[in-house]
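[agent] plan:
  1. take the single chain provided in the ticket
  2. run structure prediction with default settings
  3. attach structure tokens to the ticket
  4. add a short note for the reviewer (M.T.)
[agent] executing step 1
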Amino acid sequence: MKNRLAAAFAALLLGAGLLVAAPAPAGAATPTGKVAIKTQRMAKATLNSTQLGWYNTAQTLTLKCYARGQAVTGYYSPWLPNGGLDDLWYKTVDGGFVADVDINTNSNDPVTPACSDPFTAAPNPTIAGTAAVGQTLRAVPGAWDPAATFSYQWLLAGTAVAGATGSTWAPPATALGKTVSVRVTGSRAGFAKTTRTSGATAALQRGTIATVQPVISGVPAPGQTVTVNPGAWNPRPASFTYQWRRNGANIAGATGASYKVATADTGTDLTAVVTGTVAGYNTASRVSAPVRAGKQFTAAPNPTISGGLDVGNRLTAVVGTWNPKPAFAYQWLRSGVPIAGATASTYVLTTADAGRAISFRVTGTLSGYATAVRTSNALTTRSLLGPAPTPVFRGYPAAGQTLTAIAGTWGPGAVSLSYQWLRNGVPIAGATSTTLTLNSTHVGGQIAIRVTGTRAGFIPATRTSAASSVAASTAGMRPYKLPFPRGKAYSILQGPAEHARGILPEYNKHAVDFGTGMGAPITASASGLVVFSGWGSTGEIQVRVDHGDNRCTQYSHLSSATISAGTPIQQGQLLGYSGQTGIASGPHLHWNVVYCDSQISREVPNSVEMGTTYRVGAIATSQNG
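[agent] step 2 finished; step 3 output follows
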């Protein structure tokens, strides 16, 4: 603090939220503070921590860094707003914390950099997965305290791999024989960035090629040519080698993808061995299912498929009339690949089939006849819509008020949307527009909006909002909850009374400031539409949510926003994290209800927890979520 007159002037600016932290520039003299009155030497920036001793009047302290902690009163309190409360503390070079309100630093701003506390827990990461070429490895950061945001760097034989900066990595063939480790860096506002490196894996082994069983097509009758298809191998070899077999024995010279059936093959089982090689992988071989060489069926039609093409529908295959009649084996295919376990004449479509080509393969076998394989035409199922967000509605749920549905952005492409308002889960007759004006018949009921999206070639999707109880009038309504998660509790730094006497009261007179510290989750106090998310005109990160009737909640001075403009948002949904961006003397949340069009302060937030009473120093405990 400066002298009394300076402190008094600073108090005006601080009360208006117009002081900005200005750490000492590089190369400046080590900051000091002179103790104005004997004060506690604390282990942390709070009087609730362990007291390490005392700092005496007129003692000069060398200051290391600043922290925002418990708001306390002290020597300079008579010249401060907020009842004399100040949450600025300094850590000294002796390791203790001192309250700024009891020392003179010749500045009303922080004179040091912010303290960067070490993480309480920052374990070495581990690597999950098989140490082999082509196998996906996953970095497991472990349990950090407090929770951190992670970045990754994969290392091969101790050297960083260019571009390998995700939480997973699949080593290429060039990594064969080398060890892998991963470097994880944890970051969080107010904490020192910390890097930890895992132990190394064993030397990478050769990978395993994912194969499918080859399929022989054609009629295996003397004089006819049959062909083997390797199917979809991953990674796919540049080329394959082949060996045809008769009753399990190699046929001399039969080493191509096709084979002309000989008279000697009659009555035997023909198979084909397919072998593929990929650098860095073990050589893989697969043997086809056998086909019996012999006479041709006089009738062996392709099967057909009937049934609806939506997820959940049952498809039925019709094999047709074969002559003579053989024994049948069935296999359903998804994009040409066998579906595990789908070996009956019927099949129920699953979500994995959405938008995929489904076909049916039948194999006929009969003694003395060539095995015959027939496949139906492929039918493409309808795709799933997505994105298909959960809708919200804005407006006060009270008789005489109008609610407006917000469907959000559906896709892909152009999706037609229809609306149905519900009371207690039952459709309201005729209420099929984007708005609903509430009347006495709705009072006491739970109102929600149901949105259905349709597009040709896609499965219709339906989403329903959370429901709200309808009141008889807006009188006494408490439409908001505190803007942080349930159970979180923060002190009120400034309320509407303080803001009304501060700078720019037109824009701030109903606002509430919470001492959240840095990096606290900030959540929507009511459902609505995010209309702004980004940097505000005074340099702060801000989010605004429109609740209808030109009424927006405003969340300012965030360190980051996690939501984009145009997003429907539910009460309690994460918006971002508290911070100190823009014109702010320390990390906190500035919460306001404003007119959406002008951003002029409209009304005191009427919250479930606090009503409209926000006294400085009171502890606000959230029920949001």
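[agent] step 4 note for reviewer: The chain has six domains: 4-104, 126-207, 209-292, 304-382, 392-469, 489-621.
[agent] ticket updated
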